[in-house]
Amino acid sequence: MKLLVTGGAGYVGSVCAHVLVEHGHDVTIIDNLSTGNREAVPAAATFVEGELREKAEPVLAEGDFDGVVHFAARSLVGESVEKPEIYWQDNVVGTLTLLDAMRTHGVENLVFSSTAATYGEPETVPITEDFPTAPTNPYGATKLAIDHAITSYAHAHRIGATSLRYFNVAGAYGGIGENREIETHLIPLVLQVALGHRDKIFIFGQDWPTPDGTPVRDYIHIRDLADAHVKALETNQPGAHRIYNLGSGDGYSVREVIDTCREVTGHPIPAEVAPRRAGDPAVLIASSAKIKDELGWNPTRTELRTVVTDAWNFSRGLGDRAHSARRG
Ligand code: UDP
Questions:
Q1: What is the pLDDT of residues 122-131, one digit of tens each?
Q2: Which of 175, 198, 220 has its CA nearest to residue 321?
Q3: pTM score, whole prediction
Q4: 68 C-alpha to center of ligand 1: Å?
Q5: Contact by Cβ (8 Å): 32, 55
Q6: How much distance in Å is there from the Cα of 300 to the middle of ligand 1?
Q7: I need a labelling partner for 291 at 20 to 30 A (CA). Which of 236, 243, 267, 282 fits?
């Protein structure tokens, strides 16, 4: 397929772009490089630097696109609380521009990068797709608004679409891992301690209603996540918008993550308890039963140790040697 991948220079977008290239697809990437890295773009992809709002129409006007995989977005919860206007502009207005360009140029296959933040603070876990959506921050609200827009575009304009609601994405693939200028995520921060770039990791609260008092999350390996995008693209049906959760199905506490990082790295990783972080829910665990049943998605890297080991190899600059070797 000839595919447009928006945000294909970011962590998730670039790994998915690599996997799509491996599957033989012809990939064009639009990315403004605000948080992405030019080096993460696959060599075989065409790269267009710029804002989605400006580039979506002219790129799709080139013709012959079979589908769009849409990652381009602002995605920091804290920043979305401080500056909601850029989230509504870049995420929602950007996506509406993209959807209109798809209509204009007859592109009818869409996969959208959505998030567990659309559910807010669930009363029980695991979270299924029929749980109420009640985002607790503007980031989640913009992603939910986009999901609603896609539903109505799909029904009215025959677009076949899938929204994938990610839980905590981690790990590395193809020499690409988490490599952000401003890092806020647990696993890369803990590994920075093991690398000697930080003295210690702060645990944001140990008085949560969980077995060891620290929050529990569902960590999904980036490669398993990428596979779900390929399956979604291959099975979209005109006029239907499907929504699937994507997680490993297992929850790990902050302390369990730190312990696993200690085992994998052999570093003591000092940790200190700090106050809770605003907006954090206690427990987020996905049910991914629906995508497994309906699309045959079969994650193979569900062990936390595998996720951490791949992230650690990336952090140490090793990347994914097996994959590099396969690419020859
Ligand atoms: N966390 C922590 N210390 C850190 C970063 C994160 O204790 O330096 C906790 C955070 O409170 C949350 C979990 O680790 O409970 C996962 O946070 P992350 O930012 O990786 O992902 P989120 O679940 O917020 O999307």
A1: 999 999 999 9
A2: 175
A3: 0.94
A4: 30
A5: no
A6: 24
A7: 282
